[in-house]
Design a protein that fits this description.
Layout: H1 9-25, H2 28-33, E1 35-40, E2 43-48, E3 55-57, E4 62-63, H3 65-91, E5 109-117, E6 126-135, E7 139-147, E8 154-163
Helix pairs in contact: 1-3
Length: 173
């Protein structure tokens, strides 16, 4: 029995990048803040590009605490969505590059999100990664960390609980 030939790596990368782009573009607030995501395999790193509009205290200057919290929460939601959509994206059952705002999969909803501000967010790009610590059918827990110049020197960390969207099997559609 002959095995099916694997997809070319360029096709796989295009599908993954298209899916991530569609997921991020589906949230207007992400574009407003200037957040992008760097993808390496199934791991995502959020990148908050510095802009003067993000400054909360011009005397320091420092990134606004609300922007920091939003950055951590957005990174958590996108990472959690990426994790639960990954099997359908990989199998090709879900092509996010072809979805419309109406057919876009629902994102997890925040139940609660707590942020610890560890140091001042300086006026420069920031990075964040989120780790899904528990994911069930209805509920998920996520931990996120944000840093700027050195991954070991976090300026904020957060933990959140999310309500998962109802499971919709792509085969049912």
């Amino acid at each position: 029995m002959a095995r099916a030939r694997p997809e070319p790596v360029q096709v796989v990368k295009q599908r993954r990048d298209g899916a991530l782009s569609a997921l991020v573009e589906g949230v207007p607030y992400v574009r407003f803040l200037g957040i992008d995501f760097d993808r390496r395999g199934d791991e995502l790193t959020g990148v908050l590009h510095f802009s003067e509009k993000l400054i909360g205290n011009p005397m320091l200057p420092a990134i606004h605490g609300g922007v920091t919290a939003a950055f951590l929460e957005v990174t958590s939601i996108i990472s959690l969505s990426w994790a639960y959509l990954w099997p359908d994206i990989e199998s090709g059952a879900l092509d996010l590059s072809e979805v419309t705002p109406i057919t876009m999969p629902r994102l997890p909803k925040t139940i609660g999100f707590t942020v610890d501000y560890l140091r001042t967010g300086l006026p420069r790009d920031a990075y964040a990664r989120a780790t899904v610590t528990r994911q069930g059918r209805r509920y998920a827990s996520v931990r996120a960390e944000a840093w700027q110049d050195n991954r070991d020197k976090l300026f904020a960390q957060g933990s959140g609980h999310f309500l998962m969207p109802p499971a919709v099997s792509v085969a049912d559609d």
